[in-house]
Amino acid sequence: MPSIAGGGGWRLFSAARGITWMRRRNLQRPPFSSLAGGGGGDAPHLPVVIVGAGPVGLVLSFLLAKFGIKCTVLEKSMEFTRHPRAHFINNRTMEIFRKFDGLAGDIERAQPPVDLWRKFVYCTSLSGSILGSVDHMKQEDFNKAISPISVAHFSQYKLVDLLLKKLDGVGFQTCYPDELGGGSTQDLLFENKILMGHECSSIQLTDEGVLIGASYNNKGRMQERKLHCGLLLGADGARSKVRELAGISMKGERDLQKLVSVHFVSRDLGKYLSSERPGMLFFIFNPDAIGVLVAHDLEHGEFVLQVPFYPPQQMFEDFSNKVCEQIIVKLVGWEPADIQVLDIKPWAMHAEVAEKYVSCNNRVILVGDAAHRFPPAGGFGMNTGVQDAHNLAWKLCLLQNGIAAPSIIQTYESERKPVAIFNTELSLENFKAAMSIPATLGLDPTIANSVHKVINSILAPVIPRNLQKVVLEGLFSIGRTQVSDYILSEKNPLGSSRLAKLRSILDEGKSLQLQFPAEDLGFRYEKGALVAEDTTHQAEKPRHSKRSSGEYIPSAKIGLRLPHMPVRALSALNESVFSTMDLVSGDKVEFVIIIAPLEESYKLARTMLRIADEVEVSAKVCVMWPQGSVDGEVKGSISELAPWTNYVDVEEMPRAPVNSWWEMCQVSNKSVILVRPDEHIAWRTEPDMVSDAHSEVRTVFSQILSLNGPQV
Fold first, then answer.
1. I want to staple 404 with a disulfide (CB 3.0 to 4.6 A). Which of 237, 408, 556, 655 is the partner?
2. Which pLDDT tens digit goes with each residue over 516-533?
């Protein structure tokens, strides 16, 4: 392991390696050094403190624990919410979860059967006329052609339960205020703990990190616990306290819509929908009520109803359990006998991205919803957050071990912020597509918003709120007659025209979409912890359509995720078939060098292993053999890569119409591909393009590790 000296923080290396250039590097001590002081006083010092124990905070905790970084999680609530919230897990996130000690498999086994949730249904009531439906699952989702795993439908609170079990397996514990000493200063007391009932109430920069004030209730009295850390990671959601304390503003559109979220159960309704019209989302339009029903689990009858409301005429307090039950009955079309409302929450829809992800001298970092707030259309929120954590964790590990420079933290922002901005635009476009359906039926949401604004500007100053409410709801009631059986009928020329237009929107894929394979698997880092391609002499790259919902095309361009292909291990001890994505370890921070069994590629790979050894990053070589080119165990790589043994020989198993791994990646088999620990391609070259391999490879690793300054 690297040794960090005091003061200048010189990196020390074995003299036997003959490395002198690294001794001149003068790396600073990692910002989350285990040494306390510099303003922390007697507060316990921790390498990392994570604020927020939602899915993103827990994913970060798990990754850091796997990589050997001690951390503490602060969660302001005393219990984990059972409100389902997010429920769609996209392809890329499921790929990440495959390496969380079997988490993806746990999700696949526990989620409802795919046939119960693959459709969106548009109807006049849950038992009334079906206006149309869209099946969002395609054959490639099941044959694993573009990914080793498919998407999932799994409620957020169930995911949190599974993550907590995984954290327990790596030594994490959940603690409550009465289980901790009020004034203890022992660092070990807080390491790898989730401190429930602790809210981040203040932050103060010190010489060595951040001094945190954590408020908690101790037997009815509010007290504050002081913790000191090298890095503070804000994963505390859309209303992030960390973001507020760091003074980071959001940029984008606010208050696109206000909604009431009603969590309820009804096995009767679940049983009915399972047999009659299974689906994930139900968009319901009738003269009595309008809403979107999310079927979280039809088998167990668990639902969330989303209903728009318009304050101040309609207030959240107006939505009592009884009122919500009445709305549910109107939308169902009959009265299930076992409706039980469990929880009612208000929420506002925003489309915003933080102006900065990294602040306070690189000490405070925003992750997940703290950094970006999307409309729920397409389920980008939690998925983007998990991928934020995946991008950040390996960089923090290299920083903790003195291998990367502190400026590597800036590459997290330069890589992830553009993704968030793009996903914001994409979710907005998808939200607008969702709104095209009611607009087609004569229920244009923009008109409802205009009516609301007029009432606020004209009536609000002169008449009481209750009368304003009567006027608003009266106008809305008149508007909803557009979806009455009389108007919305094939016998009515207006209704017939609207229904035809609705079918056209659904058939052409212009309605709300669930999957975006081109964007989900094909997002690309243009600059950051990688060696960007030289585009000086290339034409300006076209941007793909915001709502392309297009086909994912595998490619080995720098910054893209490593393409998936089944491969077979060529070893006498192991001939298993696995994905190329499994070449990247999920248990440690390791780079992968992919080559074909060519003499010049072997030579460059040896140089890369030598430099990796010098900079003390873990790396291994994957030798990709053409299908059918070998019979039995391969011997050649032993001599070609000696003295290194950290390599694996695999045989391509391409599927028609592609003939090889290299063809699928759209590159020559002379290419040498360097893959980062987060499965994104960091560098690609061909041996005949490298004049001084030792110098160029050293430069490559220096750039990835930000040793020559931030690449932002």
1. 408
2. 999 999 999 999 999 988
Using a pLDDT cut of 90, give the percent of the chain over it: 79
Task: List, in sequence order, every beta strand (DSSP E) within 162-301.
Answer: 173-175, 193-196, 199-205, 210-218, 221-234, 250-265, 281-286, 289-297
Here the tokens at position 233 are: 């990671």
Distance between CA atoms of residues 12 and 14, nearest Å: 7
- In the chain, which segments carry CATH 3.40.30.120? 554-704
DSSP-assigned states of every residue in 429-497: HHHHHHHHHHHHTT--HHHHHHHHHHIIIIITTTS-HHHHHHHHHHHHHHHHGGGSTTTSSTTSHHHHH
Going from the C-alpha of 295 to that of each of 160, 290, 298, 427, the distances in angstroms are 19, 16, 6, 21
The alpha carbon of residue 548 and the mean position of all alpha carbons in its chain are separated, in whole angstroms, by 20
Determine contact, residues 389/53, Cβ cutoff 8 Å. no
Which alpha helices (DSSP H) does 79-235 contain, by range? 91-97, 103-110, 139-143, 156-169
Peptide bond into 657 cis (omega under 30): yes
Please state which of the four CATH numbers 3.40.50.300, 3.40.30.120, 3.40.50.460, 1.10.760.10 is assigned to the domain occupying 554-704: 3.40.30.120
C-alpha–C-alpha distance, residues 403 and 405, integer Å: 7
Class level of CATH domain 252-350+430-507? alpha beta
Phi/psi at 131 (5° precision): -85, -25
SS3 of the chain: helix, strand, coil, percent, to 5: 35, 25, 40
Q: Which two tokens stand for residue 371?
A: 């950094």
Residue 249, CA distances (Å) to 22, 236, 238, 428 in order: 39, 15, 12, 20
Which residues make up the CATH 3.30.9.10 domain(s) of the chain? Answer: 252-350+430-507
Q: In this structure, which amino acid lies at residue 540? A: E
Reference 47, options 63, 64, 26, 59; nearest CA is 64
pLDDT tens digit sequence for 126-179: 999 999 999 999 887 888 889 999 999 999 999 999 999 999 999 999 999 888
Q: CA 328 to CA 336: how far, in whole Å?
A: 9
